[in-house]
């Protein structure tokens, strides 16, 4: 994989993921940090899905979206984190061509799906707060399924276009990707092809994905805020703002990092890696924490599950003592 001038994409068998340009001893610290965060992602998102699926009281549109959000967070972080952790201990830091294609495709699919899910959740809160009497009618099971299916469909279509455009490029030099996972911008840096059309396609995709979802979220929350300000009860205002601030916090972290990564000129690769951490690992870790710690229904469902487990454990201990 040395310098060979130009390599057509059909000849490439491996790429090298450079990762973070830090001293060797810091790799251990980064590995432990990634391991801790990924462990919290697994525990938090699997736990959230289990709670939502097992508690009948959480069988509502809001928790249907939240369960899918946890599923998406779990899988797109799993596309990135395990390989990154392996590469902290690997000398070659290589990833196969097929592995790189798969990683980019799955990551693009799930990150776009998350954007549309967050927009659907904002719309759900808008209906719940601004039109509570019509909530059960407007947010029907059919509509919820259609919104989630549409989110995955849009993610799949955009991912197919982005991935196919990226891997029709010709690659050159050392094939070393200056990133900790396969992303289209770092891949473009090692390409010898004309990037005008791929850049236009990427900009178009970002525009039709990010702008509409942000508009839906902003408009929904403008109506929500105007409705909340009309509530005379201070307790009522706090309850609504508590629910909505969780969602806004997630949206701010995710979209802030994505806009920095894909809309600002690519001049600082190391800073881009830090921004990437926000939506590849930090957001999936924070989502279940934010939605569970600030949500009475989830906390109550968790108490019920833990109570049943403790009761079962005590029953087994009692039976063993009797025997």
From TrEMBL:
One of its GO terms (cellular component) is plasma membrane. It is a multi-pass membrane protein. Keywords: Cell membrane, G-protein coupled receptor, Membrane, Olfaction, Receptor, Sensory transduction, Transducer, Transmembrane, Transmembrane helix. Belongs to the G-protein coupled receptor 1 family. It comes from Moschus moschiferus (Siberian musk deer). This is Olfactory receptor. Its main location: membrane. Gene3D superfamilies: Rhodopsin 7-helix transmembrane proteins. The keyword Cell wall biogenesis/degradation does not apply. Putative odorant or sperm cell receptor. It is found in: Cell membrane. It comes from the Eukaryota. Residues 44-291 form the G-protein coupled receptors family 1 profile domain. The chain crosses the membrane at residues 28-51, 63-81, 101-123, 143-161, 201-224, 245-265, 271-293. One of its GO terms (molecular function) is G protein-coupled receptor activity.
């Amino acid at each position: 994989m040395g310098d060979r001038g130009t390599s057509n994409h059909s000849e490439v068998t491996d790429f090298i993921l450079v990762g973070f340009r830090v001293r060797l001893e810091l790799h251990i610290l980064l590995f432990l940090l990634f391991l801790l965060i990924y462990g919290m992602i697994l525990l938090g998102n699997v736990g959230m899905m289990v709670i939502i699926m097992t508690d009948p009281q959480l069988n509502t549109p809001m928790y249907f979206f939240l369960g899918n959000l946890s599923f998406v967070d779990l899988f797109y972080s799993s596309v990135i984190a395990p390989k990154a952790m392996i590469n902290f201990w690997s000398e070659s830091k290589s990833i196969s061509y097929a592995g790189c294609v798969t990683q980019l495709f799955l990551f693009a699919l799930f990150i776009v799906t998350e954007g549309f899910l967050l927009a659907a959740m904002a719309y759900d809160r808008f209906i719940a707060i601004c039109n509570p009497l019509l909530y059960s009618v407007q947010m029907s099971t059919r509509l919820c399924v259609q919104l989630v299916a549409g989110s995955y469909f849009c993610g799949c279509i955009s991912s197919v276009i982005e991935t196919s455009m990226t891997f029709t490029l010709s690659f050159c030099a050392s094939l070393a990707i200056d990133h900790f996972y396969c992303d289209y911008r770092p891949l473009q840096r090692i390409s010898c092809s004309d990037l005008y059309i791929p850049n236009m396609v990427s900009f178009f995709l970002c525009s039709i994905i990010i702008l509409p979802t942000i508009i839906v979220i902003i408009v929904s929350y403008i109506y929500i805020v105007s409705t909340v300000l009309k509530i005379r009860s201070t307790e009522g205002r706090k309850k609504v703002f508590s629910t909505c601030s969780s969602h806004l916090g997630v949206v701010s972290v995710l979209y802030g990092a994505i806009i920095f990564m894909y809309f600002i000129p690519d001049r600082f690769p190391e800073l881009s890696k830090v921004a990437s951490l926000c939506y590849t690992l930090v957001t999936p870790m924070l989502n279940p924490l934010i939605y569970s710690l600030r949500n009475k229904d989830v906390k109550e469902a968790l108490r019920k599950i833990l109570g049943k487990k403790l009761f079962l454990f005590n029953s087994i201990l009692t039976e063993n003592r009797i025997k």
